[in-house]
Amino acid sequence: MLFSLSEYLTQFHSGFNVFQYLTLRTILGVLTALVISLIVGPVMIRYLSSYKIGQSVRDDGPESHFSKAGTPTMGGALILVAIVTSTLMWSDLSSRFVWIILFVTIGFGAIGWIDDYKKIVFGNSRGLSAGAKYFWQSAIGLSAALALFNSAQFPIETQLIVPFIKNILIDLGWLYVVLTYFVIVGSSNAVNLTDGLDGLAILPTVLVGGALGVFAYLTGNYNFSNYLGIPYVPGVGEMVVFCGALVGAGLGFLWFNTYPAQVFMGDVGALALGAALGTLAVIVRQELVLFIMGGIFVVETISVIMQVASFKLTGRRIFRMAPLHHHYELKGWPEPRIIVRFWIITVVLVLIGLASLKIR
């Protein structure tokens, strides 16, 4: 909105031209989302506490989590408000990418909100049934995949880029829709599985989102993409503003979510943020790099798959409890140690992902 307004005002004063710069709008997007989170956060926490919208703890979870019962949840709504508001304020709203990623983020957030609502109102720690949740995730993920595929204007938009290897572009055709669907839905559930400790999921999300913003800026800039030898995708640069909003909102939420957490994001935040990361990776053509940078999310998901498969096939468990962070809890690791070590691993993986820009 403000981008369009500044564009109109340039005819009266050239100084408003400064708001046309993507870098400035990204910085303003970060700061806007951060300020919204820090201002609205305490109000939302008080509201959630007064209406007893607290965390429901599963009976089969670690005993150390029982003390967290009643902690305000659904705080992810704060993240969504900050991201959406900041994106609408500073993005070029004529970009199809902006509307597609907002559709996915809000849609998955709505699924998470219903899931959290069921947990709180009906006292059911399982929330929305797995079948219903997967159906709506699939509907939104597939809709976004088809929208991106049908609106693609250049061949590169539906080709798979192999990181660390130069000039290898794989034409996917209709397989692009399948890949995009699995990246969005898979990423959403992976972040949701990781969101089990105070601050464990939000900082890796911020780090990966920020790194994808770097990819978006370079991929959407002809000069930089040509210099680095990466494919140029027109219009993708606008995703930097969304990434900035995600970073600002995430850091603002971490202010309240850091150990010991004053509020949890709930599924409304985790499902939305995971889907947003998946959609970003697809738009900037870095699905495989997302697999690297989001390694913590991947490992957490694989640990659940391995645990379930092993128990069903052999009756034995591989880990003391899944997802993986619970395994380390039951081994006696303090919660802050698990969180910080997972953060450090994410920093390393993000750096490896960014290295693919130059190592080709």
Describe the structure.
The chain starts with a helix and ends in a 5-residue tail after the last helix. Helix content is 66%, strand content 2%. The chain is an all-alpha fold and 360 residues long. Strands 1-2 form a two-stranded antiparallel ribbon. The chain has 14 helices and 2 strands, in the order H-H-H-H-H-E-E-H-H-H-H-H-H-H-H-H. The chain has a domain at 104-236 and 259-355. Strand 1 (159-161) and strand 2 (169-171) form a beta hairpin. The model has no long low-confidence stretch (mean pLDDT 90).
Task: Name the structural class.
Answer: mainly alpha
- What is the alpha-carbon Rg in Å? 20 Å
Number of helices: 14
In what range is the share of β-strand residues?
under 5%
- Write down the overall geometry: globular
Please state the average pLDDT score. Answer: 90
What is the spatial order of strands in the main beta sheet?
Answer: 1-2
Helix content: 55-70%
What's the main sheet like? Answer: 2 strands, antiparallel
Distance between the termini: 39 Å
What series of H and E elements makes up the topology? HHHHHEEHHHHHHHHH
Q: Count every beta strand, where a strand is a DSSP E run of 2 or more residues.
A: 2
